[in-house]
Amino acid sequence: MNQTIELLKKHRSIRKFKETAIPEEHLTEIILAAQAASTSSNIQAYSVIAVKDPERKRRFAGLAGNQQQIVESPVFLVWCADLNKIRTAIRLHEDVELKQNVELFLLGTIDATLAAQNATVAAESLGYGMVYIGGIRNNPQDVTDLLELPQLVYPVFGMCLGVPDQEPDIRPRLPLAAVYHQEVYSKEGLEDEIKAYDEITRHYYATRKGGGRGGEQETKWSKEMLRRFNGERLRGHMHDFLLGRGFELK
């Protein structure tokens, strides 16, 4: 164990923030740490946009399902996969179209995610808290318009950032045996691991502090997965939206 591992294992999603502003020098260091993340072939196919204007944050909150933490956080970061910069770089030399496929789309999305997670660790090391906001993909075109994103750029997720104003319990994760495999994927014992985790999460949801599902005795992980994925396809509009943004998913 060391301080870095201890910090990583103490991660919690923070949804209530103090009004304390984040100094610009801290925000700069957080983004520089994000830029140090791994990136496939050094393409760096992502961008991040900081939103501080209260009215703009209120609009984002509405687009993301009325998530008040967006309004309360002093900085709302929107992480974007960005192939526009790749196309721009290529056209410095030849007037050609960027050759796309699903792999290139994945590279941009993965790059943005790796950078954002670096930013999370850097922010938490400075005493800040954060929570990812996938809800901006509920209305991706409106978010795109609000950010004035060019073609070949799409918002992957948002991130609320600020000084925590709550102390939620750390959410337990799946048992190691349900995640970590050696040599080959092993299905043996998976149902038992999930059942064991269900009991852990049932107790967590029934007793946790910091709001949420406290007191709901039958809330557990497998039922949460059923609720989430047993209805309509999650954000089924994203495919057509991405095609409209110029991404070629083939």
UniProtKB/TrEMBL annotation:
Protein name: FMN reductase
Membrane-crossing segments per the record: none
Keyword check for Protein transport: no
Gene3D superfamilies reported for this sequence: NADH Oxidase (3.40.109.10)
Coiled-coil residue spans: none
InterPro entries documented for this protein: Flavin_OxRdtase_Frp (IPR016446), Nitroreductase (IPR029479), Nitroreductase-like (IPR000415)
Signal peptide feature range: none
Record's keyword terms, sorted: Flavoprotein, FMN, NADP, Oxidoreductase
One term of GO molecular function: oxidoreductase activity
Organism lineage: Bacteria, Bacillati, Bacillota, Bacilli, Bacillales
Family under the similarity heading: Belongs to the flavin oxidoreductase frp family.
